[in-house]
Amino acid sequence: MDRNEPAAPDGDAGREIERPIGERPAVLFGSDPIAETLRDLGIPWIALNPGASFRGLHDSLVNYLGNRSPQMLLCLHEESAVALAHGWAKVTGRPMAAAVHSNVGLMHASMAVFDAWCDRVPLLLIGATGHFDAAKRRPWIEWIHTAQDQGALIRPFVKYDDQPASVAAARESILKAVQIATTPPMGPVYINLDVLLQEAKLDAPLPKIDFARYRAPAPAAPDPVALARAAEMLAGAKAPLMLVGRVFGGMVGDEDSWRARVALAERLGMRVLTDIKAPAGFPTDHPLHAAAPSTFNTPEMTEAIKAADAILSLDWIDLAGTLRTAFGGDAIPAKVIQASVDQHVHHGWSKDHMGLPPADVYLLAEPDVVVRALLAELGKKPVAPKPAPAAKAPAAAPAVGAVIDVAMVAQRLRAAAGNRAVTLLRTPLSWGGQMWHFRGPADYIGFDGGAGIGSGPGMAVGAALALRGTGRLPVAIMGDGDYLMNVQALWTAAHYKVPLLILVVNNRSFFNDEIHQERVARMRARPVENRWIGQRIGDPEIDLAEMARAQGCRGIGPVTEPATLQAAIAEGIRAVEQGQVCVLDIRVAPGYDASTAAAMAKAEKK
Questions:
Q1: In angstroms, what CA-CA distances link 439 with 38, 83, 258, 433?
Q2: What is the separation of C-alpha 253 from the centre of its chain, rounded to a whole number of angstroms?
Q3: How many other CB atoms are found less than 10 A from the CB of residue 55?
Q4: Which residue in 51, 274, 288, 411 has its CB near the most CB atoms, within 10 A?
Q5: Which residues of the chain have pLDDT under 70?
Q6: pLDDT of 388
Q7: 258-270 burial, b for 16+ CB within 10 Å, e for fewer?
Q8: Half-sphere exposure in the Cβ direction for 22 (13 Å, CA)
Q9: Contact (Cβ atoms closer than 8 angstroms) between residue 417 and residue 424
Q10: CA–CA separation, 453 vs 290, rounded Å?
Q11: What's the pLDDT score for residue 516?
């Protein structure tokens, strides 16, 4: 078979791309058992931008393992490689690997590693260094690509890092790293491999490992006394509220856990809020869902929080900030129950742990474990019935204007998608939570954790890879700034036949910063008319669709007229269903949904 023949007969497109020729070698080198360890751990893919520092491992993946399990996914930038692994983990809940070249590749990748850290997703990052023995370094290049402590570059935002000094130590280090990465709160880990370790010839195979003995531990049960107190508070509350945050870290949860959350809310007549930064955790059209999910507190969310007399937080992102925004400097009258294990990764360098929230009961256990335990505990107690919430008025259809806005994009996408099962892989800051209902855990994968612009394309490719063959339509809606910073990730999707639809809501500006410059100008009594300078992306206009076409994707647009928008999206959906990557450049009016704008203004005051 030609090594670039695109598709296997079984339809697993991309699996038969880049197949090596030749027989498996008999002589072993240090990187061979390392590659074998990745395979035996069940790592399916390794996204990488190639580098000489891990040329030994690269050879082992190709010529020893046959580029299978893991199969390499060539990326055009290290940040793309890590973002791709991040997106994969968000959908599957499992780690894949990414490899980066020496200190320079790690520097490129560092923003994406930080995103994965803040998002609490598992990710195995493989790095490499020039000869640590200075006497064996090649002149010039191996000196500038070798660091005394390479892991120090990202140590503040990984759960574990190591630079093993032997092949046996490398195997154990990878086992330990994956165990730590997959123990909640999950996160990225980094293993740095010396060139000599990879390239040394082995005298004999290493002993086999029983991988079943090195799995992550089972989740801990909540303290029975604290659990009973929490159940008593919730059962006796007149207006309980559940804040559904990162119930499975930053990743998509399972149907059983979804149903358990619904059952708990219905058992208590408990109102529910969800966060657009986290994956879908509760049906947003359920009568108990109190307000559309948002990045910041909307007025409707604040109203629900202030009305509650007992609050159950399921690893809500920034619980302290949410309560402070709702109550200002006032005391918080509601009893607060916190269910989270996140404090296990809180430390001094990064402030992604947010503020310290008050908690009358602190259950140091995974949220879904707590939900099931509360259901069992409440089965022993009488719970007074609560009046059903007033029926929500149906959302008004968005007015059709002469200019496309983000709400119109959402409405036209829903119409074009029809009855298809859609997974939203990304929403922009201008998105309003009421624009799209989530009715199952796979409907939305959440944001990137670190709010670093540029993560969208790579994460969308990784998530779409995980969804390939599931029958779901993968759709990422992202801003033009996000798209432009990592657009080269699309080539990987096109090359490995990963169907994906990207709708770029292109306002030709870094518009969030326009708003910031306007606020500063108003505070200083200076001209707000200058807010656009240094922000607008124009003169010349960038052809975003052509950037997609240049990488082998389908590009549509620019779409500028409301009358043609739905047909253009439908064309994009057809392209994806034919196995293509399709990008629509949709020119939208700058601005935010009204509820989002109000929430952002409120957050700014705090």
A1: 36, 26, 10, 13
A2: 13
A3: 16
A4: 274
A5: 1-14, 393-400, 594-606
A6: 77
A7: bebbbebbeebbb
A8: 11
A9: no
A10: 30
A11: 85
The label of the residue with tokens 């997959």 reads: 182
Q: How far apart are CA 128 and CA 101, in angstroms?
A: 6
Helix (H/G/I), strand (E/B), else coil: 440: coil
Element (H, E) at 506: strand 500-506
pLDDT value, residue 266: 96
What was the pLDDT predicted at 452? 83
Structure tokens at 27: 């002589």
pLDDT tens per residue across span 68-127 = 999 999 999 999 999 999 999 999 999 999 999 999 999 999 999 999 999 999 999 999
Token code pair at residue 187: 């996160």
d(CA 82, CA 114): 10
- Kindly state the tokens that stand for 601: 């203004």
Q: Is 397 exposed, middle or buried (0-12, 13-18, 19+ CB in 10 A)?
A: exposed
Q: What per-residue confidence (pLDDT) applies to 311?
A: 98
CA distance 387 to 397: 29
Whole-number pLDDT of residue 397: 63
Q: Are 360 and 319 in contact (CB under 8 A)?
A: no
- Tens digit of each residue's pLDDT (9 = 90 or more) over 393-438: 666 666 667 899 999 999 999 999 999 999 999 999 899 999 999 9
Q: Locate tokens 């949220």: which residue?
A: 367
Give the Å distances, CA to CA, from 41 to 52, 97, 116, 207, 382: 25, 11, 20, 16, 47
Cα(530)–Cα(539) distance, rounded to whole angstroms? 17
Residue 432 backbone class (left: φ over 0; alpha: ψ -120 to 50; beta: rest): beta
* Of 398, 405, 401, nearest in space to 507 by CA: 405
Q: Are 455 and 110 in contact (CB under 8 A)?
A: no
Rounded Cα distance between 583 and 553, Å, is: 7
425 secondary structure, DSSP code: E
Sheet holding 310-314, edge to edge: 271-274, 240-244, 310-314, 335-339, 361-363
Which of 462, 498, 486 has its CA nearest to residue 544? Answer: 486
**Torsion-angle region of 69 (φ positive above 0: left; ψ -120 to 50: alpha; else: beta):** left
Q: What single-letter DSSP state applies at residue 205? A: P
> Which two structure tokens, joined as six digits, stand for 466?
């995980």
**Separation of alpha carbons 290 and 275, rounded Å:** 12
**Angle subtended at Cα 316 by Cα 156 and Cα 226, rounded to the nearest 5 degrees:** 100
Per the CB < 8 A criterion, the answer to whether 357 and 338 are in contact is: yes
**CA gap 46, 69 in Å, rounded:** 9
Q: In whole angstroms, how large is the CA radius of gyration of the chain?
A: 25
CA distance 77 to 490: 11
Contact 188, 182 (CB under 8 A): no
Query: Tokens for 260?
Result: 């358990």
Distances in Å between the Cα of 376 and the Cα atoms of 74, 224, 366 are 48, 12, 16
